[in-house]
Amino acid sequence: MNWISEWALPKIKTLFGSREVPENLWHKCPSCEQMIFQTDLTKNLRVCPHCGHHMRLSARQRLEATLDEGWQKIELPKAPADPLRFRDQRRYSDRLRDAQVKSGMDDAVLVGHGAIEAQRAVVAAFEFAFMAGSMGAGVGEAIVTAARLAVLQDAPLIVFASSGGARMQEGAVSLMQMPRTVIATQMVKDAGLPFIVVMCDPTTGGVTASFVMLGDIQIAEPGALIGFAGARVIEQTVREKLPEGFQRAEYLLEHGILDMVVKRSEMRETLGRLIRLLRDAEGEAVPAAA
Length: 290
Fold this sequence. Notes:
Layout: H1 3-16, E1 26-28, E2 35-37, H2 38-43, H3 59-66, E3 72-73, H4 92-103, E4 109-116, E5 119-126, H5 137-153, E6 157-163, H6 171-175, H7 177-190, E7 195-203, H8 205-208, E8 217-220, H9 231-238, H10 249-254, E9 260-261, H11 267-281
Parallel strand pairs: 5-6, 6-7, 7-8, 8-9
Antiparallel strand pairs: 1-2, 3-4, 4-5
Helix pairs in contact: 5-7
């Protein structure tokens, strides 16, 4: 028996009379399977209040939760659409159009600039719902643009990564984004600016194998899946059973691949503190104590 449909919804309908009850009033946590009010889940930044499971955020929600009020979205250069005229079961151009309509984005990364706790910052956030956050020419252009803007504004670059890897429909064009993004983030470092990466669930494939692992500070959200190849592929290759929790954020922290694992509710404060520490370490003037 489904107690939500059989008991809870009739009770709610009785309370509110004949008005329709929204179907998305509740959300089931994929980890503990507890039911959560959508409004409570939104207020809690899509973190389960029962078990602490971090569900996926949209790119816009990332920017809104990270940047101070008044941040601005950056218009990104248009990348060539369907450069290989790729087709499998469907045309790539049709898949791309559907993803753009559903997400309201041109590609899988949104870039904004503003401030984090009153300190300038440029933030790029991946949208996993856009073709699994895969990296094609559009994503490469977004990271390059974000890096150039960070240098121009003398601001740190922060990337929230969530991706399945390179976009297969763009073939070698997508693979070329790996060196492009590495060079772009190196521009930020050469300018003496902090480059901070936050790995969200999941961060895999060619995105992990390129610029994501080059941050000055490597952060991950709790429980995030991080790696290059899948665990099953690795087990078949090395012919060994992998340890429990392999490729999860906590395991990687224990083995020195990450600098910290930070809860979403503490992410903005942590980033603000890191920016202050890194900029002060670079020799910026520190305000005199009153």
